[in-house]
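Renewal narrative, Specific Aim 1. Our central claim is that a sequence can be written position by position from structural information alone. The example that follows is taken directly from our test logs and has not been curated for this report. It begins with the structure tokens describing the chain, in the order in which they were read.
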């Protein structure tokens, strides 16, 4: 069993990660901006979790949340298509707090769209990545760069488009490139992969890219 702190636990993917981590027997600390809303969303299962209030833009919140943990998972994300520095700011705070506490394992959710020149993306998607999603993916890339320049053992998971289909278990993982022909990834499959990555070294300092 590992002690895992999950930032962005109140998002759809964050909740899936929390559920998969708990199912795997890990101790989970959930960091959310509104603990009351999170408890309400979880219902009766909330009592099994440690839930703390925190904002990744506030270093003191991140520092306190990481204390006593063994691995960090970031499932943070903005409500719209603009990041406004959320990913890069969070990464800087994660690295600083992890260094202060002697925690050296982190898994962050990025996107397959970060790699604009991925040969397995259709031309229309590359165009969208360079225009409509340029700011969002640019901040994700900045987040990855912060991690790459650090000494922590990081993994930047780059999923394809996340969908809420039944758990499939047949996803493919590319090494820094989208699996050929893959366009979507089941949310629970993604969550299960993230939890494994947080407790194993196979994908340390790499960019696993997931799709069905």
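The sequence written for that structure reads:
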């Amino acid at each position: 069993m590992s002690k895992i702190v999950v930032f962005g636990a109140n998002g759809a993917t964050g909740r899936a990660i929390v559920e998969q981590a708990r199912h795997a027997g890990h101790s989970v600390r959930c960091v959310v901006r509104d603990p009351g809303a999170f408890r309400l969303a979880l219902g009766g299962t909330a009592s099994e979790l440690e839930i703390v209030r925190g904002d990744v833009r506030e270093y003191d919140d991140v520092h306190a949340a990481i204390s006593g943990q063994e691995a960090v998972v970031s499932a943070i994300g903005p409500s719209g298509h603009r990041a406004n520095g959320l990913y890069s700011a969070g990464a800087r705070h994660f690295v600083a707090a992890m260094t202060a506490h002697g925690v050296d394992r982190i898994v962050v959710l990025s996107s397959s769209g970060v790699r604009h020149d991925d040969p397995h993306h259709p031309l229309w998607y590359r165009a969208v990545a360079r225009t409509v999603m340029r700011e969002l993916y640019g901040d994700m890339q900045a987040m990855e760069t912060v991690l790459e320049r650090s000494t922590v053992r990081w993994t930047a998971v780059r999923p394809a488009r996340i969908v809420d289909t039944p758990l499939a278990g047949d996803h493919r993982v590319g090494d820094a490139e989208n699996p050929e022909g893959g366009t979507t990834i089941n949310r629970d499959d993604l969550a299960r992969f993230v939890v494994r990555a947080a407790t194993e070294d196979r994908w340390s300092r790499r960019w696993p890219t997931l799709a069905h």
